[in-house]
């Protein structure tokens, strides 16, 4: 594990300006986090489940149930979907938050964002086009059999180009690429950060109803500023502040 007292895990303070593998974080000692690493190794949000009302507890605990088979995406689309979710979230080993299943469930049930860009197709069509386009890019530009079959460094390069709106030709011509990135990432991040394992990773205390919050100091501040159920983080620096100082 890296020395968490040093800020060299922040991209702008590293020579290559690339983030290190998240394994620099400490091993999780209580509860479960993605890949069993996190900034709050002694925090388990599920230990506070008794403070939630019955309806909230039922909804949250249901997210821990083993996911069923995909209902929206086809067998041919599934590998690309999973590779995309794993790559953008840096989930390269178990345990993983089942984001692919979350995305699939929302699309299958029509639980969309409630709005649609004027120059974009329906979100369900956007996802199918993006997966097809990712496979085309992996094959055309990098000689891989598919996006899912490509090497991790190749998938990351394609994702980087996707995030910057730099992909074109083929199926990409049917999309506003930057907006397609926004559509896919909103649903991907929503699925990830709605899961209790992700809450453990970031030290989030979970639902506040009906318990509420007594203090607003944050989990990395002094003990007097933390809620009784919060634990101290493994590193105290404010990553946003350190990142901004590194850019000066």
TrEMBL record:
Disordered: annotated segments: 1-31, 220-248
Highest rank taxon of the organism: Bacteria
Residue ranges with Acidic residues bias: 236-248
Native organism: Mycobacterium paraense
Protein name, as recorded: Gluconate 2-dehydrogenase
């Amino acid at each position: 594990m890296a020395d968490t007292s040093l800020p060299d895990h922040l991209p702008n303070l590293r020579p290559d300006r690339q983030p290190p593998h998240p394994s620099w974080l400490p091993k999780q000692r209580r509860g479960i986090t993605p890949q069993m690493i996190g900034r709050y190794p002694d925090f388990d949000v599920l230990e506070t489940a008794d403070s939630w009302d019955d309806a909230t507890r039922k909804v949250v605990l249901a997210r821990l149930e083993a996911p069923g088979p995909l209902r929206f995406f086809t067998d041919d689309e599934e590998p690309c979907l999973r590779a995309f979710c794993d790559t953008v979230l840096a989930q390269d080993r178990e345990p993983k938050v089942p984001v692919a299943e979350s995305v699939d469930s929302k699309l299958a049930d029509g639980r969309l964002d409630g709005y649609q860009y004027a120059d974009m197709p329906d979100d369900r069509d956007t996802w199918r086009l993006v997966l097809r386009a990712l496979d085309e890019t992996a094959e055309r530009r990098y000689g891989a059999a598919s996006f899912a079959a490509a090497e991790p460094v190749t998938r990351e390069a394609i994702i980087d180009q996707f995030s910057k709106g730099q992909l074109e030709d083929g199926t990409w011509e049917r999309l506003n690429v930057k907006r397609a990135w926004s559509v896919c990432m909103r649903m991907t991040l929503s699925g990830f950060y709605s899961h209790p394992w992700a809450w453990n990773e970031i030290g989030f205390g979970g639902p506040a109803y009906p318990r509420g919050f007594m203090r607003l100091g944050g989990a990395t501040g002094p003990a007097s500023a933390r809620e009784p159920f919060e634990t101290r983080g493994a590193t105290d620096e404010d990553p946003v502040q350190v990142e901004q100082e590194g850019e000066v």
